[in-house]
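User: Hi! I'm working on a homework problem where we have to compare a predicted structure to a textbook description. Could you give me the structure for the chain below?
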Amino acid sequence: RASVYSCTMIRFLLVALLCVCAYAENPGAVVTIDETGLVKAKDFFLPKIISELRKITIPGEKGHDFEFGDIKIDSVGVESVDLILAPPDKLNVKITGLEISIAHTYFKIFKKIIITLHCSGHFWASISGTNIDLVIPFTDVKGKPHIPDITANVHFGNVHIDHKMDHLFCKILDKLASLFVNINKKLEELVKKKVPELLTTTLKKDANKALEKLATVVKIDKWAELDYELTGNPVVSSTALSLLSRGQFLNPNSPKPSKLVPPKMPAPPRRDAVFQMSPYVLNTASQVFTEQGRLDVRNKSLPITTSVFKLLFPKVYKDCPNCPLSVSLGVRKAPLANFKPHDGQLTADEADMELNVVHPGGKLQGLFTLEVNASMALNFSVKAQQGVAFVSATISLKQFTAAEVNSTIGHLPIKSLTALIDKVLTGTLIPYINSFLINIPVPSIPDVKLLNPILSVEQNAVVVASDIKFGVDETYTAEDIPGLKWVNATHGQPVPTNSVVGGEWISKDGKKHDYYICRGAEKKKHEVVPGKAGYYKAIWTCCWADGAYEHCEDIPHYQMLTSTVPLKWVQGTVGQPLPTGAVVGGHFPEKHSSHPYYVCRAHDHKRNQTVPGKLGYYYALWSCCWSNGGAEKCLYVPDYEVLTAPSSYHLGSTSVTGEGSNGKITLL
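Assistant: Happy to help. Predicted structure tokens:
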């Protein structure tokens, strides 16, 4: 019987396991917030929460032998706030050393014997040594990540009350005891009830508001929308919080689930925030657009004429000499994407390509129709537009096959037409399709900015890994500002039009020469560093400072900063070491985060030069560092200037100033 029972149980477990596997749904897209990103969220929201705590007021009270005014909080401080990820679905917040100072509050004590005696004064108090543990659970409510309730466990510390009487002598001081007992109870209630209530309410409200933005249905255009709603509860690991999204494109006029199955994606890399998109996202987009005919091309003009058929089909040329040609494309089967490490591919089968002669007056004459099966490369990039990040894709032809469907000009020699088909595909159809391919929005939270996002193609996933910054400010990268652009320097154009001048140097013959702003890559350290570009020893070179030394790259292994908008050098000060609108020129890694380098310049008194370089915050100091004579040189606040762009341009203004005759941008 035991043996039969064991076999039955094993069969049951196997069937159950098979059922779970059969119905498990891989996400089409995943948003992962690393513990480093959660710490940044905590650092951003903590001052707001402390500000809210300071608004708590305990109403004044009047008893039979005392009265006191409204008790208000003067200051709030904490020793530390630690986040502890608790798999599978919770985040613990440990607040240690909560301290609250109570402002001076008026009080009066009185005692009626024959007449009423009274004394008045002020008391103040401090609460210290209190610890609060919060438990934040995550769940899925109708496709949205949600925090239902936050529990708080308070370990109350100590209360110390001081007072000062308004008069030197008071005959009823015995009444102070009952007053302070009452106040002590009020303060204990403040810490045990009101503070946790405000903490849990504020956290729940702000966190849910932010989280729901990461799992929503995004309107793409009138033909498509993208469903980022969750497929299940958020997942908490020991290092991150992950939101598993559907990632499916839908026809808004006829939404229906796709029969495609998302593949399993790899574990995300360690950055503040990571977005992973499986080929399922592109493939459902392909389905939606194919079903609506959005990938079809109708009567697109070609840059060739019937002269291409002069030898192969002389009658076509004779009937309409040098008449223009047009092409139409009908996509019968939705193209399918596939991702492998460093390689994105798109397979497009069963597409009908029809070639026509356009006669004078616009009449079309169909020549032939081919079935084309093509393999194309998918090329991805990440872009930012109006504070939202997008994954942009373009296609390029790798190889194709073609077969005759029908012809009005006789049998088609496909091999002889290969060059023509290739030209039509690469020169007209693919560029036209690329022109209207959509940008796929990365789920985002308002007032959270991606810093130095890196895109990679992995097995079954396009991955965008980025650092994040909370809060709206006016520190932005050149890519954020219309008119600013980093351009690859080339032998043909070592100084691109509108290159930004950052300083000057004097040669031995006494002539002045410009230093331009450039940047190069420190590949071993994974850094991008701004520096100076100049013409030395008959070659254009970009040099920057790093690790106490000067590093240089010759043309074409660096980029130049160009601008068609007015820029301004602003002196760094103790109060504002990083001026508003500082332009980011590069980045450097530290632990799991990436930090920006800003573009600065300083005067090298020894060489009598003004030299552009990098501004960064290291060892608790803002430092502007540049390279000269093989070494790194640095100056600190206020002995440097920072390159800034006016905020009006960051907000989208497209007006430009006139260029000088030499094509350089003039700084304010």
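For your comparison, note the following. Residues 1-24, 473-479, 648-668 have pLDDT under 50 and may be disordered. Helices lie at 2-23, 35-53, 175-211, 279-291, 314-319, 414-436, 647-650. Good luck with the assignment!
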